[in-house]
Amino acid sequence: MILTSRVDVSANRRNRKYDRRTQVRRVAWALCWPIFRCIPRPCWALRVWLLRMFGARIGQGVHVYPSVRITMPWNLRIGDQAAIGDHAILYALGEIQIGARATVSQYAHLCAGSHDIRDLARPLMTPPISVGPDAWICADAFVGPGVRIGKGAILGARAVAMKDLPEGKVGVGNPMVVQAKHD
């Protein structure tokens, strides 16, 4: 693709991306972030409680490690017994839904935000991400905006999912290639 016009950085910066309430919530979360990180590892319930205080909807028996980076917890929906591993990034500019018993492994990145490349002002877009029940996002994998990972699917280590991964399938590589159903 050849750009024939210049990107309008000024228009992007002038564009108000969040209302006042959201801006206040982001500041409050940033101030509480050090508390979240300092809660000892085995104190799962305390971290979940703090996330719920910021509007996250989280089921029972969920493990969120203290090194997880979460942008906007009020955009999180996490089902019972799910686990979010060390240093995972939940860039929840849009909704991120993680199903029951799903695992998001260490250093995985779920990115529910991007910019419209067709518009020179590059406005913010926040398409939701859905990770189905019993799915596994393996170490260092990336899930892009608007992607759905199906029930019981596995996104392999370091794989990049910029399109949906169907139920029960395995996705590997960059770009992701969908393999046959796993047993």
List keywords for this structure.
183 residues, alpha/beta, UDP N-Acetylglucosamine Acyltransferase, domain 1, seven-stranded mixed beta sheet, five-stranded parallel beta sheet, 19 strands, 19% helix
Structure overview:
With 183 residues, the chain is an alpha/beta fold. It contains three helices and 19 strands. Strands 2-5-8-13-16-18-19 form a seven-stranded mixed sheet. The protein has a five-stranded parallel sheet with strand order 1-4-7-12-15, covered by helices on one side. Strands 3-6-9-14-17 form a five-stranded parallel sheet, with no helix packed on it.
Compact description:
With 183 residues, the chain is of the alpha/beta class. It has one domain: UDP N-Acetylglucosamine Acyltransferase, domain 1, CATH 2.160.10. The protein has three helices and 19 strands.
Q: What is the secondary structure topology, with strand pairs?
A:
Layout: H1 9-14, H2 20-38, H3 44-53, E1 57-58, E2 63-64, E3 69-70, E4 76-78, E5 83-84, E6 89-91, E7 96-98, E8 103-104, E9 109-111, E10 114-115, E11 124-125, E12 129-131, E13 136-137, E14 142-143, E15 148-149, E16 154-155, E17 160-161, E18 170-172, E19 177-179
Trace the largest sheet across and list its strands. Answer: 2-5-8-13-16-18-19
What is the residue-mean pLDDT, rounded to a whole number? Answer: 93
Structural class: alpha/beta
Do you know the CATH topology?
A: UDP N-Acetylglucosamine Acyltransferase, domain 1
The CATH top-level class label: Mainly Beta
Distance between the termini: 41 Å
CATH superfamily: Hexapeptide repeat proteins
The amount of helix comes to 10-25%
